[in-house]
Specification:
By secondary structure, the protein is mainly α. It has one domain. It has four helices and two strands, in the order H-E-H-E-H-H. Strands 1-2 form a two-stranded antiparallel ribbon. The N and C termini lie far apart (about 40 Å).
């Protein structure tokens, strides 16, 4: 086992669908000074404009939504333990 994770376009589309109700569509900015300095076009995705003000919102929501079944199991187990 190489430990590499292969992400397919289908994986990305599924993740997008899972988190779409919780995520803003954020702007993409450019900066002509930056472009001129480095001789190429740069694009900056403004993830800090998410509802959470965080760069991690997409990944965290996707991880939690994928683990929803596990979370329900944990909740059910906690009720049994009490």
């Amino acid at each position: 086992m190489s430990g590499r994770v292969v992400v397919t376009l289908n994986d990305i589309l599924k993740a997008k669908d899972r988190i779409k109700s919780c995520i803003h569509s954020t702007a993409v900015f450019t900066n002509s000074t930056f472009d001129a300095r480095y001789g190429r076009k740069f694009y900056f995705k403004a993830e800090n404009l998410q509802k959470t003000g965080s760069f991690k919102a997409r990944g965290a929501l996707n991880a939690v939504s994928r683990s929803r079944f596990l979370l329900f199991l944990l909740v059910d187990i906690s009720f049994v333990v009490q």
